[in-house]
Write a structure and sequence with these properties.
- The protein has 126 residues and is mainly alpha-helical.
- It has a single domain, classed as HPT domain (Four Helix Bundle (Hemerythrin (Met), subunit A), Up-down Bundle).
- It is built from five helices and no strands.
- α4 packs antiparallel against α5.
- It is elongated, with a radius of gyration of 15 Å.
- It starts with a helix and ends in a 5-residue tail after the last helix.
Length: 126
């Protein structure tokens, strides 16, 4: 399963930087991944709060933002979970918080080590 997640990420990063990225593209990828790794945990915490008692409009916005972030780095399976939350909130439904957060945690457990490895391979850049 991890290899499919790695393939998703690798494919997206190749879309961004090309098949043989130079130093500038590698630095861009590193910044993109590090930003994702720094910002996403707080975003997921906020999503959890909204799943447990926020309004559906704010829940939809938060899920949409997380979906976009996950898509940007190629975490397509994780993005799909956020998309489900977004779709539900759009029609006024709130998915089960525990089930949803469990699915998110499971996907993150698969994708974060991959991203950390790719980030470690990329130069920090300016």
């Amino acid at each position: 399963m991890e290899s499919s997640r790695e393939d998703e990420v690798r494919s997206r990063l190749a879309d961004i930087a090309g098949p043989e990225p130079g130093p500038g593209e590698q630095a861009l990828i590193g910044r993109l991944i590090r930003s994702y790794l720094e910002k996403t945990p707080g975003g997921v915490d906020r999503l959890g709060e909204l799943l447990r008692g926020g309004d559906t409009a704010t829940l939809r916005e938060q899920a949409h933002a997380l979906k976009g972030s996950a898509s940007n780095i190629g975490a397509d399976s994780l993005a799909a979970v956020f998309a489900e939350v977004e779709r539900a909130a759009r029609v006024g439904d709130v998915p089960d918080p525990d089930l949803t957060l469990g699915r998110i945690a499971a996907e993150q457990a698969l994708v974060v080590p991959i991203l950390e490895r790719f980030a470690g391979d990329a130069p920090a850049g300016p």
